[in-house]
Write a structure and sequence with these properties.
globular, five-stranded antiparallel β-sheet, alpha+beta, 9 strands
Length: about 200
């Protein structure tokens, strides 16, 4: 079985391939890792296959996934249809060496503050003046209404951004940009990455 630090190992390999100012791309999951992720997804409970929580704030939440988790989630979805997925069935996009980051306008229970709409997400490196832009960005609009509020619902915006494993590394910083100009900075820590597979 793959260790709990599988993502850390994949991330370390990704950083190593990008070391020394080389433009090399991070490695995809190996065949063995894909098979292990399929086994995990076929046996793990749904609760273990959720996106990893980066930060929960009163009016927004940030989650992320990894290639290993995406394979496991796909295996779980097939199992629910009474089918067994094989390595050859995994679409190439699922195992791309990228992290999908979900910055969601989401109000926590009991919170009375208005939701904060997200505008954009970037990564900053230590001492870097430039931001690492996502490989791709998609925004989603959702209706926001407080409990027992019968006024017209407001619209809140969430962001899904895709980053290279090489950039989603310990020591770097996630920068959230909100509508209205507010920003939040979140450190990408070794402890956070150690929780992911």
């Amino acid at each position: 079985m793959m260790s709990e630090l599988a993502f850390g190992a994949v991330l370390a390999a990704a950083v190593a391939t990008g070391a020394g100012n080389s433009p090399a791309k991070p490695s995809k999951l190996s065949s063995e890792q894909v098979r292990e992720a399929i086994r995990w997804g076929s046996t793990a409970p749904d609760a273990d296959l959720q996106q990893y929580v980066f930060k929960v704030a009163p009016t927004w939440t940030v989650n992320f996934d990894t290639p290993y988790l995406r394979v496991a989630q796909l295996a779980r979805a097939w199992k629910k249809m009474n089918r067994q997925i094989q390595e050859g069935h995994i679409p190439p996009a699922v195992i791309e060496p990228v992290v999908h980051l979900y910055a969601l306008a989401l109000q926590q229970p009991g919170v009375t503050e208005n939701l904060k709409s997200l505008r954009h997400v970037t990564i900053r490196t230590p001492g870097g003046y430039d931001s690492v832009q996502p490989i791709s960005v998609r925004t989603n609009l959702n209706r926001a209404r407080k409990p027992k509020d019968f006024s017209p619902a407001k619209i809140a915006k969430s962001v899904e951004a895709v980053f290279s494993l090489r950039d989603f590394a310990a020591g770097n910083e996630l920068r959230l940009e909100f509508e209205g100009g507010d920003t939040e900075r979140l450190a990408i820590t070794r402890e956070l990455l150690a929780t992911a597979r």
